[in-house]
Amino acid sequence: VSSDSERVAFPGFAVYTGTKFFWAGAADSIRKEISGTGVKITNVLPGFVYTEGLEWLLKDEKSMSAFKKFGLGEASDYLAQKDKMLRPEDVANSVWETVNKPANVYVHDVMVKDSLQ
Predict the structure, then answer these.
(1) Quick check: 98 and 42 in contact, CB under 8 A?
(2) What distance in Å separates the CA atoms of residue 47 and residue 7, rounded to the nearest whole number?
């Protein structure tokens, strides 16, 4: 499970976004290395998932300042719309659906968006 930041860079989150772009390349390399073994690599790319960690981030003064500085809006607005974010069980269901595909189906990536984006 990675992040939709694997596909879209966000200003102010260079290190976070960079780690996600790294995972995209690593997954592609591993796919090629294990080709023909029957092992499948799937990237699950969720949008905003409301967790305690995200809540902490959105309440952190340094993060709130970065949101404003880089034109991402008010962090408090995200908190006010947490009902539009994914829940951890939404991501878990996406993983479950992916791993339970027939053997002839290979899902490389699953983009799971919240309704804020």
Answers:
(1) yes
(2) 11
- CB within 8 A of 25, min separation 6: which ones? none
How far apart are the C-alpha atoms of 113 and 115, rounded to whole Å? 7
Model pTM score: 0.84
H-helix or E-strand containing 110?
strand 109-112
Return the H-helix or E-strand segment holding 44: strand 43-46
**pLDDT tens, the chain, 117 aa long:** 988 888 888 888 889 889 999 999 999 999 999 999 999 999 999 999 999 999 998 899 888 888 888 888 888 898 999 999 999 999 999 999 999 999 999 999 999 999 987
Residues counted in the chain = 117
